[in-house]
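MODEL INPUT / OUTPUT PAIR
PAIR INDEX: 1
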Amino acid sequence: MKNSFTIDSPSTPKLDRFVPLPKQKEFLIMDRRFDFFGYIGGWGAGKTIAGCVKSLLLASMYPGNVGLVARNSFPQLRDTTMRTFRELTPDSIIKGYSKTDTMLELVNGSVILFRHLGDENLKSLNLGFFYIDEAVDVDEQIFYLLVSRLRLPHIPKRVGFFTTNPGDFSSWIYRLFINPTTKKERFGVVFSSTLDNTYLPEGYRENLLAALDDKYAERYIHGKFNELTTGRVYFEFSMEKNVSSEVRLLPDIPLHIGMDFNVNPMAATVTQDVGDELWVVDEIYLPNSNSWEMAREITKRFKGYTIFIYPDAT
């Protein structure tokens, strides 16, 4: 195998110069307590670096080890995980790299295989460890398949681990590793926030905080499982902030009406711009109706007002 694995990069230190963040350090020793463990965090929380470092440590500690570094698709594996691995790996510990087989061999005889998780050959592997990058994208059955491949006989501690952004509460990761009522024995995780990573470029964290709403920030900055697909329309609604007894239909202020042209029901929301606030002053709900009936209802209720209507074009 040709030794052409490493590349120069100013962004990621080599393994021999790597100084872990506190949460990364906690993750790197989790195999003392757990057989299966994960590093869950927001964007830029140092997850992939931590997973690659752990893989290199296991391959270095146990000569002749065989480890799998995997991701859901090969482009993701090649462009992110393998690139980080290359940047971390010192030339001095590499015996060779096969680009054809996507396999790295270390001078101590350990081998690290890089595979996407649609590879049929996964079923024939004998492993000392596996690492799944961005496990939230991976099917639960793939995880069980990899667990079944941890059978390399001479390795005293065989483990599986992952790094990932959080998902929603239906995720197998949440069920197996986090939920206290369903969590498995010897399964553990560490959580990390984007804000924990002091190595990020200046302004990166501040830009994310400014750009993301509360729900997205909870998941992709603070590294917490939550629901993004339920309650999406009204999740920022607050009775304290958004309901007031002062709101009423005011004279001499134009009406802005949002219109949904369904047949059953025909519906509209009636609003007015009052200062820097948008007041919702009325609603119209007409079952089994049509556009003509809605027009008559609007003119009956709001005679004399200037009216702007914003219909749903679909």
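PAIR INDEX: 2
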Amino acid sequence: MFHSGISVLHFQELDSTNAYAVSRLGQLSHHSLIISDIQTAGRGRQQRHWDSSFQGNLYMTLVEKQVPRQLNPANFTQLMAVSVRSAGLEAGYDLRIKWPNDLMLKGGKVGGILSEARFRGQSFAGLVIGLGVNLKEAPVLQSDAPYAAVSFADSGDESGRAQPLERDEFAASVIRHYMERYENFLESGFRAIAREYRAGLSEYRRPVFIESDGFSREHRFEEVNDAGEIVVRSPEGQLRTIQAGDVR
């Protein structure tokens, strides 16, 4: 079912697939894929809690140990986002990407990606790319979340094409799309997926609220540049490039 270059490790329960991968990075092979039925301590960016107690949802982490020096590890999050969107479109769901790491469906959050790079001294040890997708059920998000959580199962599709999604089949589809783009991505970085990524954005050319490096203000989302960073315009007309932060 899975791409031949992927080594799958399946667990009934983990605290976090990312935490498992990070703690065993030295023993895991390149392109190990950790999947757990549930997580007891799932998390997103900035250590936000992510309820991962629903069997049938997808909780997985892919291990990257061969990242060329010229590539920005953060762009692997975008490669994974394009891959998940492609798998969703293939099944009949218009999944959208919300920079930097959220996956949206009909205005609600259906999943998220958490990438973490690890180093030993000055040497790169590996990158873990965690993915959580609400296939069957959606958790209740924190009260300050700007949107509700949704699942593929309760979102449906007006076209009637949408297919019920089983976890392992969807995970295999995501990995297939990831590997189809992988070699070009290693050569060209974000440019290899830029067109697909921009086409999938949910907030393109819209007013957004930016939180980055202590900076918090409404801007207009103008574009994603060739490095995968967003460019926003202030109410005064000034352009600002954001490398990391939250967009609401």
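PAIR 2 NOTE: The radius of gyration is 17 Å.
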